[in-house]
Design brief:
Trna Endonuclease, Chain: A, domain 1, nine-stranded mixed sheet, 3 domains, elongated, binds S-adenosylmethionine, 27% strand, five-stranded mixed sheet, alpha/beta, 390 residues
């Protein structure tokens, strides 16, 4: 079976990769949650924040490593014998992931621990400032694709003439490679600045130049590149620009939609997203925050700032700026409508929307009363009827 490419899967990468044929991918770049004990939020241009994914692990590092190992085994299985994997991590779990990778890929296939060094981030007076990430590079076998990369020479005394770069050592000419010195395993690349053109506001977005180096070194034109933790799609965009085939996976519908938008911007107009939640059953299974993100994205709305979301408003319709509340439940009742009335009034609005799977009779009665007596138009929108309203 040949692997279908140039598409995005919305789902858990463990389940998605399990359906791929073995030995079908040339290169994997994986940038998983780092065991950082943080919640990551996306900051949109309007200052609104939204939770996009959680990196907290009940049960500690052993639970995390087990979760990762299952996925790393799938990565190993789907890689071709000539393939390589780059696993991006940091001090939180790099030591444990290295041991796991040694077991899965075989320690003889360890190639590098790349140190990506940058200047951003905090500092403390109790230890040295932590200013690097670790990227573990393993091949699947001894015969892996590798295109050497070069950096400009930093040493002095190099001359150039029509025959190229050279130095005079002990009275003799020693030629130097025109392309520069072979690239070492320490890479100084700035983190994406807050005003950088490529910055999308997605937390943990990686710089394109970092991915370009990895893809150019460990893949060739038309090779298949897989990113099982796609985020906002940095790997896919670089793969497309370098003429590689690509596959992205992310469990977050909002990440998948960002990947799509970003790929469209670099000319990939026919991106397919597979597995984006569609049925009511699938929508009910989403994490509550993922469901909320899905609804607001689906209606083309904007997210609330934290202050208004504390008041029960999750977002606003795009043009009319009508407040929207999202409930991932059936049988939403009168009390929800009642509380929403107060939130709308505080915002000085007269129309608002509650989106849920279904509402009770008393909820409809309360909405009718608010309209008649309070001049408030509260629309109770069932998820399967959203297209009729927005
Ligand atoms: C560190 S971010 C990746 C950032 C990405 N490299 C970029 O440049 O945008 C990790 C991503 O993994 C996703 N993720 C977490 N668990 C996942 C799973 N089981 N399957 C697929 N994606 C997952 C999160 O939604 C998040 O977008």
């Amino acid at each position: 079976m040949e692997l279908d490419t140039n598409l995005i899967y919305c789902g858990d990468n463990l389940e998605v990769m399990a359906k791929f044929p073995e030995k079908s991918v040339d290169l994997i770049y994986a940038d998983p949650p780092f065991f950082s004990n943080k919640q990551y939020e996306i900051i949109w241009g309007n200052g609104a924040e939204m939770k996009v994914y959680e990196d907290r692990w009940k049960g500690g590092i052993n639970v995390y490593i087990q979760w990762m190992a299952e996925r790393l085994w799938q990565c190993y299985r789907v890689l071709k014998d000539t393939g390589s994997m780059y696993l991006h991590c940091d001090w939180h779990a790099s030591h444990r992931l290295r041991v796991a990778m040694d077991e899965i890929f075989d320690e003889r296939h360890f190639q590098n621990e790349i140190i990506w060094s940058y200047r951003t981030g905090g500092a403390t007076k109790t230890r040295f400032a932590r200013k690097h990430d670790n990227i573990l590079f393993y091949s699947k076998s001894e015969k892996h694709t590798f295109n050497p990369q070069y950096v400009p020479y930093v040493m002095g005394g190099i001359l150039e003439d029509e025959r190229g770069l050279y130095q005079i050592q002990k009275g003799k000419r020693v030629n130097f490679n025109q392309r520069g010195a072979l690239m070492p395993d320490v890479w100084e690349i700035p983190y994406i600045g807050s005003v950088a053109r490529e910055r999308l506001g997605y937390p943990t977005q990686k710089p394109e130049i970092l991915l370009k180096r990895i893809l150019e070194a460990s893949s060739n034109k038309d090779d298949i590149v897989l990113d099982p933790f796609g985020g906002c799609g940095t790997t896919l965009v670089v793969a497309r620009q370098l003429g590689r085939k690509w596959i992205g996976i992310d469990v977050s519908p909002i990440a998948c939609s960002l990947m799509n938008t970003r790929l469209n911007k670099v000319g990939a107009s026919d991106v397919r997203i597979i597995g984006a939640p569609k049925t009511i059953k699938e929508l009910k299974q989403l994490e509550p925050f993922q469901f909320q993100n899905w609804v607001i994205a689906r209606i083309g709305g904007v997210l609330s700032t934290r202050k208004s979301s504390d008041m029960g408003i999750d977002g606003y319709t795009f043009m009319a700026k009508g407040p929207v509340q999202v409930k991932q439940s059936e049988g939403v009742g009168r009390n929800v409508v009642d509380n929403f009335e107060t939130a709308i009034r505080r915002e000085h609005k007269t129309t608002g929307y509650i989106v849920a799977f279904s509402f009770t009779k008393s909820a409809y009665e309360e909405a009718a009363r608010a309209k008649l007596e309070g001049n408030l138009d509260i629309k109770l929108v069932r998820v399967n009827e959203m297209d009729n309203y927005f």
